[in-house]
Amino acid sequence: MDGHQQLTVDVVQSRLRRFDLRQDGRLSAMFPSNQYPHIRRCATLVPLFFTPHDHELHVLLTQRAATLRTHASSVAFPGGVQDPDDEDDTHTALREAHEEIGLQPSDVTVVALLPPTFVRPLSAVYPVVGFIPADFQPVPNPHEVARVFSVPLRLFVEAEVAFLPFSVEGLEFRSPVLIYPVQPDWQARIWGMTCSTCMLVARAVYGSRAGPGLLTSSDHPGPEDEEDVFRNAQTAYHALCQATRPHSRL
Hints:
GO terms for molecular function: coenzyme A diphosphatase activity; metal ion binding. By secondary structure, the chain is of the alpha+beta class. 25% of the residues lie in helices and 30% in strands.
């Protein structure tokens, strides 16, 4: 992959195409909608934009409100549970982004729908990657969002990322963690599904960098390219969904 090619919305979309559930029938067949009835279907928006002054690709993130019942104060994408009236995952992601940060759905150019990630306790989260206006001014819903900030996407292939172990139903995995100084008095702790998704998108856009894998049970992972990273994430998703089935026995 030519990492020096000028990035545009079209270039990013083309680099994500082979991981887009809407574009690849074989990939979408791996995630049938009724495969895991006990898992809630959710969607998040992965909001990308180019900064006007240097054309650097950024991803917009939120810090969830401290009063929320789940994942309080965590760094996350805008998103939530699919409503019965939602047409599809894109509808869910755009609706939630409007509710949480005031982003108009008509201002988003969707470029990919990525495979789902398992999020505890029992959710399948489908990331919808979309471009937003560079001059977008967030209006956070204080009941859901404490703050909104952005991070250069390139950091997710170039910066130091730690990996923390976690277990679900006896299965051992490692979750990536990236610390990013947003303000002098606050550092964002980007981890879990949010960090994993940023790493996946960054590797697809920028190409591989030598470093550990994304989410794996291996104690000594080696360098991986973006294909391996996506494959590992898919394997982890199915393993976790199967392990949390009622009375499941692997």
